[in-house]
From TrEMBL:
This is Hpt domain-containing protein. It comes from Massilia yuzhufengensis. InterPro entries: HPT_dom_sf, Sig_transdc_His_kin_Hpt_dom. It comes from the Bacteria. Keywords: Phosphoprotein, Two-component regulatory system. The keyword Transferase does not apply. The keyword Phosphoprotein applies.
Length: 121
């Protein structure tokens, strides 16, 4: 189940971009620019048990994860966000496991980006 929740879905990315290859490239670049630092902030909030920051970062991650089709991770972020908004921090290791899975997904996105042909003039 863990693998399914972290699986990158290029078909969903292409659907989101309406089949526009240039937009796919832009979405990949945006994802790779913003998700790693966002995930780092979430990891830091989890370690510090700072629920307001957990909720904020989990919420922000959700839309990024949707673009690449990671519905399982998106649902886990939603659950974390909802709990954190109620002041509930996840048990030790639970939240960092989510961050680890986002790292795996990010590696998949990076590999996909690297495999795409170069475009432009």
């Amino acid at each position: 189940m863990r693998t399914l929740s972290t699986q990158f879905r290029s078909d969903i990315l292409h659907d989101t971009a309406g089949g526009d290859d240039d937009l796919v490239d832009q979405l990949l670049a945006i994802y790779l620019r913003i998700v790693p630092p966002m995930n780092g902030r979430l990891r830091a909030a989890l370690v510090a048990k700072h629920t307001a920051a957990m909720a904020e970062e989990a919420h922000s991650l959700r839309s990024c994860l949707a673009v690449v089709g990671a519905n399982g991770l998106q649902e886990r972020c939603k659950a974390l966000e909802n709990a954190a908004r109620r002041g509930i921090a996840p048990p030790d290791g639970t939240g960092t496991g989510l961050c680890d899975d986002v790292d795996v997904l990010t590696s998949q996105v990076y590999d996909y980006q690297a495999s795409r042909p170069l475009r432009g003039g």
